[in-house]
Design goal:
The chain is of the alpha/beta class. 63% of the residues lie in helices and 8% in strands. The chain is extended and about 105 Å long.
Length: 497
């Protein structure tokens, strides 16, 4: 249950307070300028004959200045209200509309914390703690959280509050610093509201490192309460999620996870070594198992490793162990959903993807497999909504240079939904059309009897896909029906006949 502490009276008071502050600033500036004018006038009149210049005595001139200053004061306040106040009212009304819109979720970004350590290993800990915080926030359905890639793209960049608000549409930003000293960890953290540009909550922690999970819980709880009021956060019941009490295992897991996200062959191999070491340090820690499975899956997808029986056996062993130790682990359930998708077992894909989504509804990888499961089990409209949410949170997925992955996924979902006009609109936004989009767009053109052979998208794809094994490739589309699959295979064969 959500218990928002934003009754209309409080919001109206907030609006009045902000308008008052704006007018107070205008009034202060006017008074300072008036005093300066009066002082300047007194100096001038002391050295110049006012009667010769204006036909009035110096006392009369000063009285005129005083009266004019007083008379213009309310005029200045009125002008300031209409110039600044009305726009402020509109901003506050927009903010109120967001607050009371049941579909709107406040958007949060956690920018990389400053690393106050000097050693390289300390950097893994700092970034790991920040990523854990991003994950903790991602588990809360009442908000939207920018992806890890988006958040870490702000490292060493000096963005203003206006840029965070207007360009990125963030409502709040979390920042801070971390220093690890022997067995202790010192964390300074603050939450800034983008509408006002003010820090609305901050704290400093100096605790033993083994208490890091309790510190994370307190940070998340305090920040959420500051953002949207007192709510019951079942996701923060750490009893079912505390991964380990072994700091060596925890830090090795952070290192393995960081190496995994470099998407490089050597880093991938080093990540598996670090995760194996994390497992050896604490074999009951579920996290290194799921991240090992994730890293091995990455090795297959990027061609770092051949798909041998031995490799797949190790992969599935790690994945199953991760779920055994924590059947609510979002990452393990996400990967298990991917496994069942490759087997075209869409109902089981949906079972695991839904568990992953319920555990972490803001992670873009989770949103991707959840959307895949929905569009293949007759919930296409909901699947499209999930893809659009993923695009908001993670415009450029990890390892990508643009939004084409989401746009291609959105194209395919609308293709299955028979919304061909929307497909055409999306096609214009895609920089690199993938093979699935190329063939399904060809199908649309055929069905609508459009001319396509001279179209750039067709000619480019036709040349690139000449040597494709279409039976194998279309199988990878994971179409919801065998009839659709055979139709696209026959279509591709006819084009190259």
């Amino acid at each position: 249950m959500v218990g928002y502490l934003y009754p209309s009276g409080i919001l109206q008071f907030s609006m009045i307070k902000k308008i008052f502050l704006k007018l107070w600033k205008a009034a202060t500036a006017y008074v300072v300028a008036s005093i300066a004018l009066i002082q300047l006038a007194s100096v001038v009149l002391a050295n110049v004959s006012s009667e010769a210049s204006f036909g009035y005595s110096s006392e009369t001139v000063m009285q005129f200045i005083f009266i004019t200053v007083l008379a213009l004061f309310p005029v200045v306040l009125i002008v300031s209200y209409f110039v600044k106040g009305t726009s402020l009212v509109q901003n506050i009304e927009d903010s109120q509309q967001k607050t009371f819109d049941p579909t709107y979720r406040q958007k949060l970004a956690v920018i990389p914390f400053e690393n106050l350590n000097e050693d390289k290993e300390g950097a893994f800990l700092v970034d790991g703690v920040v990523e854990d915080l991003i994950t903790e926030f991602s588990m809360i359905k009442e908000i939207e959280v920018a992806s890890r890639k988006t958040c870490f793209s702000f490292r060493n960049k000096d963005y203003t509050t206006e840029e965070f608000k207007n360009e990125w549409d963030f409502d709040f930003v979390v920042s801070g610093s971390i220093r690890a000293v022997q067995e202790r960890i010192r964390i300074s953290v603050e939450l800034s509201e983008m509408e006002s540009g003010n820090v609305i909550w901050s704290n400093k922690y100096d605790e033993v490192q083994k208490d890091i999970f309790e510190i994370q819980d307190e940070i998340v709880t305090k920040i959420i309460n500051s953002m949207i009021g007192k709510i019951e956060l079942s996701s923060l019941q750490r009893a079912n999620r505390k991964p380990t009490g072994n700091m060596t295992s925890y830090e090795l897991t952070l290192k393995g996870r960081a190496l995994n996200q470099k998407f490089e062959k050597e880093a991938n191999a080093e990540a598996i070594k670090a995760l194996d070491a994390a497992i050896e340090a604490d074999e009951n820690n579920p996290l290194p198992y799921s991240w090992k499975a994730c890293t091995m899956g990455q090795a297959l997808a990027l061609g770092f490793q051949e798909q041998t029986d031995e490799f797949m056996g190790t992969f599935l062993e790690a994945l199953n162990k991760g779920i055994e130790l924590n059947d609510n682990d979002w990452n393990a359930n996400r990967i298990m959903g991917e496994v069942h998708l490759t087997m075209h077992d869409f109902n089981q894909t949906k079972v695991f993807a839904t568990k992953a989504f319920n555990a972490n509804p803001n992670n873009s990888a989770v949103l991707s497999i959840y959307a895949d499961s929905l569009i293949r089990t007759e919930e296409i409209d909901k699947g499209i909504e999930i893809i659009e949410k993923a695009m908001r949170l993670d415009p450029k997925p990890l390892g990508d240079l643009n939004s084409d992955r989401w746009l291609n996924a959105l194209f395919f979902a609308n293709y299955l939904n028979n919304d061909y006009q929307r497909c055409k609109d999306i096609l214009n936004e895609i920089e690199e059309i993938n093979i699935k989009t190329w063939l399904t767009n060809l199908d649309i053109a055929k069905k609508q009897e459009d001319e396509f052979k001279d179209e750039p998208w067709f000619k480019k794809g036709f040349e690139e896909n000449k040597s494709v094994d279409w039976t194998m490739e279309v199988d990878r589309f994971h179409l919801p029906s065998e009839e659709d699959k055979n139709h696209l295979i026959n279509l591709a064969s006819s084009v190259y006949a």
